[in-house]
């Protein structure tokens, strides 16, 4: 019995070990090769202003196509990269690549980039952001950096210092997966945050009937009010249905992101979408 238990565990361990090794090799390859091989890339998920339905920007999301194992989810390899000292070079690659690609987007569109807790804690982040912006010629005002709420609670003082330094560069700060962590309102008020990204779990519950939906709606309303009272905008992530979109509109949420409005796209396809949207196409809803 023990053996049937052990074998899958061993296989899983081997898989992770292999992924860590391959990711390490990929990141230490000469600059540019990762992308040339098409193995590590960014997809971009569009974000919209709810009021007028216009495209407002896009979030960069990492994708890894392993030559043998196929597509690997960032939910799997980002934590592995964090555990094995690879997140800093990986995060740098993301920042530089995303800024370069976004520098070609039409003027007001913003780029959102996810930061890991370890990047925020480290010493190189500010320089790395500054050099990514300068290298790409992207104005700092068009970059939004996403950190999770839990990150900020682990070392609140350090996090606050880092966020203030980033703000001085001119970039804006978003709190990702908001509502799932345990930040105190007092701490939150002291943080230089521009945007609250309402976690997908609340948005998912909004579409349902009954008490769960009512509760989720109350929470979303509270987050929006909190944002309004303290000068933070709100964006709902994971919007999948017209009913959810409507509920979010009634709650006063300002921005939307989710499969209903657009899946993460390759850079080229996103630019296509941007061209269409600049010719004044409103929020396109599936009928
Ligand atoms: P996240 O930053 O909260 O990103 C949103 C995730 O939700 C993405 O998953 C996105 O594809 C997915 N999503 C978007 N709309 C919908 C929807 O309507 N329904 C559902 N069910 N899902 C939706 P993805 O791309 O698999 O990324 C997972 C997580 O991996 C991200 O969560 C983020 O925490 C992390 N990640 C991705 N790229 C990076 C990166 O460049 N750096 C770091 N540090 N983390 C990253
Ligand atoms: Mg994010
Ligand atoms: Mg998120
Ligand atoms: Mg999330």
From TrEMBL:
Show where the EAL domain sits: 24-278
| Protein name as it appears in the record | Diguanylate cyclase (GGDEF)-like protein
Superkingdom in the source lineage: Bacteria
User: Taxonomically, what lineage is the organism?
Assistant: Bacteria, Pseudomonadati, Pseudomonadota, Betaproteobacteria, Burkholderiales
Section of the entire sequence shown: 526 to 812 of 812
């Amino acid at each position: 019995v023990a053996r049937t238990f052990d074998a899958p565990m061993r296989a899983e361990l081997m898989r992770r070990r292999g992924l860590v090794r391959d990711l390490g090799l990929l990141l230490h390859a000469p600059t540019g090769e990762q992308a040339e091989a098409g193995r590590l890339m960014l997809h971009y998920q569009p974000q919209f202003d709810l009021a007028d339905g216009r495209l407002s920007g896009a979030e960069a999301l990492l994708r890894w196509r392993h030559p043998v194992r196929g597509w690997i989810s960032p939910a799997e390899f980002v934590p592995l990269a964090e555990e094995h000292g690879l997140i800093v070079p990986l995060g740098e690659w993301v920042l530089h690549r995303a800024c370069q690609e976004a520098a070609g987007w039409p003027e007001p569109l913003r780029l959102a980039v996810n930061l890991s807790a370890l990047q925020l804690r480290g010493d190189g982040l500010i320089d790395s952001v500054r050099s990514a912006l300068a290298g790409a010629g992207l104005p700092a005002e068009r970059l939004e950096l996403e950190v999770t709420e839990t990150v900020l609670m682990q070392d609140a003082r350090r996090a606050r210092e880092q966020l203030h330094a980033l703000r001085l560069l001119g970039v804006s700060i978003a709190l990702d997966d908001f509502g799932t962590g345990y930040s105190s309102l007092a701490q939150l008020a002291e943080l230089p945050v521009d945007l609250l990204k309402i976690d997908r779990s609340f948005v998912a519950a909004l579409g349902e009937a009954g008490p769960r939906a009512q509760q989720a709606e109350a929470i979303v309303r509270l987050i929006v009010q909190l944002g309004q009272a303290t000068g933070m905008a709100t964006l709902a992530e994971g919007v999948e249905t017209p009913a959810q979109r409507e509920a979010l509109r009634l709650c006063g949420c300002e921005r939307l992101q989710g499969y209903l409005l657009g899946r993460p796209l390759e850079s080229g396809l996103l630019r296509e979408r941007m061209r269409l949207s600049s010719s004044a196409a409103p929020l396109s809803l599936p009928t």
